[in-house]
Design goal:
12 helices; FAD/NAD(P)-binding domain; Arc Repressor Mutant, subunit A
């Protein structure tokens, strides 16, 4: 959209192919002989990728952004010998996406416990079946879509668990009232449910996985009923023999780059936790920095696409490539679609609101920070002394590993909140620091990377 209106545009994507998770394209070396067999998402993604190239945008894949200060972007290619490059842009649109919400429970570090996104990547990109007896545990529309999609690919799904309640007549009426503009979503949901019914896959509501057991990998899963806050109901535990557990309790927004830029955030657990604040043109609180997609609150692929288009129109108007009137006219259908999708999201919310109990499944010996092997017991020792996640990080090293807290920060915040009596949003986030991704030391040694005098030369 931006390139089509005459803006010199560079798209930077850290993956080797475009499309993200939903519209994922096969990796380098794969040849697609029959696109129809890869489904509608592949075809939609292919159209988007082609339109970006045809519009004249420079597509830079396999490139990682490691720092963002205002509209100064530091990035480096992932190939051998790549060095850091700094781009001074007039506008930067950050679309960092989201990732599966990490949920710690006994046994979650066993081989065979995978996130829904990880399993989806195996199936979509590499055509690899994740296991022979697969269970899904999670919540949200994904709890219908993901098991149905895997079953369509031939995966043996033995059980699907939805943490939220079963639909009621009232909730169904709410969805029907929000149907205008969303009939395709309702149709897809009905098709996924029908697929599970035809395949004989049990879908059980109001249940979560509480433990994974096995020697060298998962052999059995324990699951139990939960109340409205997703807290386990005593005496309801059951066991199922599985070799793979796919976990999909919604998503967490990727906030690293937007925090480095200094953007202002709000908080909504159902939208992924920390949510960057944007205006009607997707502008953040930092001049020149815009944000779109699931990184601004998890609302799904169609919303991400239209938010991106809206941000591009706003940038084009700000930079004089479009008049305000032209931008407003072009934005009108986008805003109508976004409003319809928001009505549908709000209608779904009573069914899939994230319960605090999802952060209370770990036991004392459960490893919460996988990178640094920090257990819940160690975190609770720190929580007795502080409610500051950064102090707890210094005490325990939780959040100092390769993922920089992506897999444990929410769990750490929940532990601190529980001990201090604070709501999770009031527990300070772990400080974001460059580089936003692990990089070779030669990238940090490059003179183009600003260091504020922290390194002595």
């Amino acid at each position: 959209m931006a390139a089509g209106h005459g803006l010199q545009t560079v798209l930077v994507d850290e993956r080797p192919t475009l499309g993200g998770q939903i519209y994922r394209q096969p990796g380098p070396g794969f040849v697609v002989n029959n696109a129809g067999k890869l489904g509608h998402d592949f075809a939609r993604g292919l159209d988007l990728v082609r339109s970006a190239g045809e519009a004249g945008a420079e597509l830079s894949t396999g490139t990682t952004v490691v720092s963002l200060r205002g509209t100064s972007v530091v990035m480096f290619g992932q190939g051998p010998g790549a060095t850091a490059t700094t781009v001074q842009a007039r506008r930067v649109l950050v679309a960092p996406g989201a990732y599966d919400r990490p949920v710690a429970f006994p046994g979650w570090t066993l081989p065979g416990v995978v996130t829904a996104g990880g399993a989806q990547a195996l199936v979509k990109a590499s055509r690899v079946v994740p296991g022979d007896r697969v269970a899904f545990a999670g919540s949200g529309p994904l709890a219908l879509a993901f098991p149905a999609q895997l079953r369509h690919y031939g995966v043996n799904i033995v059980l699907a668990l939805e943490a939220g309640p079963a639909p009621t007549p009232r909730s169904v009426l709410g969805l029907l009232s929000a149907a205008p503009g969303n009939f395709s979503l309702l149709r897809d949901g009905a098709a996924y449910r029908a697929q599970l019914l035809r395949s004989g896959v049990p879908l059980r509501y109001g249940r979560v996985v509480v433990r994974a057991d096995g020697e060298d990998r998962v052999e059995e899963m324990a699951h139990a009923a939960v109340d409205g806050d997703w807290r386990v109901v005593p005496g309801t535990e059951e066991r199922t023999a599985v070799d793979t557990i796919c976990i999909g309790y919604g998503f967490v927004t990727s906030t690293e780059l937007l925090r480095l830029a200094g953007c202002r955030f709000g908080y909504d657990e159902d939208l992924g936790g920390a949510v960057v604040e944007v205006d009607e043109w997707q502008r953040t609180s930092v001049p020149g920095v815009l944000a779109a997609g699931d990184g601004t609150g998890v609302r799904g692929g169609p919303v991400a696409i239209d938010q991106g288009r809206l941000a591009a129109l706003g940038a084009a108007a700000d930079l004089g490539a479009l008049s305000p009137g032209q931008a407003a006219t072009l934005a009108r259908p986008l805003r109508r679609r976004l409003a319809a999708k928001e009505r549908f999201r709000l209608a779904l919310r009573p069914l899939y609101a994230v319960g605090p109990g999802v952060y209370e499944l770990a036991t004392a010996g459960t490893v919460v920070c996988r990178c640094e092997e920090v257990t819940l017991a160690r975190l609770e020792e720190a929580a007795a002394a502080t409610a500051d996640a950064n102090v707890a990080k210094s005490y325990t090293r939780a959040g100092m590993g390769l993922c920089q807290g992506r897999n444990c920060h929410r769990q750490v915040a929940a532990v601190l909140a529980r001990h201090s009596g604070l709501p999770i949003p009031e527990v300070a986030a772990m400080t974001a620091r460059p580089p936003a991704r692990p990089v070779p030391i030669r990238v940090l040694a490059d003179d183009t990377v600003p260091d504020d005098g922290l390194f002595v030369r």
